[in-house]
Amino acid sequence: MSCGNHHDTPCSEVLDRVYSYLDGELDDSGCADIRQHLDECHPCLEEYGLEKVVKQLVAKHCGCDPVPEDLRAKVMTRIEQVRIQLAD
Prior knowledge:
By secondary structure, the protein is mainly α. The chain has four helices and no strands.
């Protein structure tokens, strides 16, 4: 996904790292890059909002259940497949 505007951090990179950002797994510089991009890019901000809501729902309803180790990889693979389909 790209909004068509130039950003220091490309839209695709921001969306690839949004879960790491939400999980607090990025260093200060990485967080600052993501925040700056989201401040400048409305489409990515909307996508970030959706991702944040999904993460909150999962945490609320599945927080007590053990998560299979390969679940994150499967979810991320499926998200990438959908992004490719939407880009076509």
